[in-house]
Amino acid sequence: MNCPNCNGTNLVCKKRVEVTKDYIKSDLMHCNDCDILFLCNPTWLINAYEESFSCDTGHVIRNNSLASKTILYFRIWQIINRTADFEKCLDLGTGIGIFPRLMRDKGYLFYGFDEFSSMSLIKPFIASDEMMSKIKIKTSFEVIEHIPSLPSFLREKVGDVNLFLFSTELRDVGKIPNLNWDYYNFEVGQHISFHSIKSLKIAFKKEGYDPDRIFSFGKSLHVLANTRKWIIAFRLARIIWKINLLFEKLQKILLNLIFKEKSLTQSDFSYSKKLIKNIR
Ligand SMILES: [Zn+2]
After folding, report:
1. Where are the domains positioned within the chain?
2. What's the 2 CA to ligand 1 centre distance in angstroms?
3. C-alpha 197 – ligand 1 centre gap (Å)
């Protein structure tokens, strides 16, 4: 067996785990060459996507946050370029299309693409194959942990881009998180690839991208910026995102004090997860 990320053979089984509500057995494998951690032979994916509700109560809030961050990033790039024009953009693995819809609501020409979803919110703005190869600004959020091979995804879907903004939560290099790490989400069985910055950069390098052009904001949001202006804009955006985070926290505290507003996202997630565990 070869590593799906680097094609190496230096693989070690770290744990035998049970995934989906049907307790399908799989090996959690680690590649000593590139550091990817992955679930072996994911034959259960059709079952894993059968249930449309995967207790992801934070889906809307995360899309809102990603859209605000992306818009700020784009605006900074526009200021640097002294232009208000913006080219077409594509969101890969768009799901029902919340993110590109939010971007279009702000006037950005976003299209969606997803082989496994109805894309109901972004219809009829679906990218054709021809359009996909021409668009130079692409995004892909919460997709990489769902796909067995990042190099194939980069080759077939991302291609030649000026900017690729994406998310996936990274492990520390060389570390195997405990089995209680929420991100494994074995009960649902949709997450199958767990990258570190090392495995991520190796995949990009393998497909001919310059890994030194990958930058991150925290552990989850990353960018491949292929032009100097996109890199500068990202560095500036990162500073403003950090300041905004502080303001958001302050706003939450104030709203809780004045109106007793407290988000139900996390408690709803815990409740839903308990229900799924009971079904198992
Ligand atoms: Zn590998």
Report:
1. 11-87+136-279
2. 8
3. 13
The gap between the terminal CA atoms of the chain, to the nearest Å, is 31
Tell me how far apart the alpha carbons of residues 269 and 134 are, in angstroms, rounded to a whole number. 39
Identify the band that residue 17 occupies on the pLDDT scale cut at 50, 70 and 90.
Answer: very high
pLDDT tens sequence across 176-187: 999 999 999 998
For residues 147-171, give the mean pLDDT.
97
Separation of CA 193 and ligand 1 centre (Å) = 11
Rounded to the nearest whole angstrom, what is the distance from the C-alpha of residue 10 to the centroid of ligand 1? 7
Q: Which of 217, 246, 249 is nearest to 233 (CA)?
A: 217
Mean pLDDT of the chain: 94
Gyration radius from the chain CA atoms: 19
The set of residues, in sequence order, having a beta carbon less than 8 Å from that of 143 and lying 6+ positions away, is 92, 93, 153, 166, 168
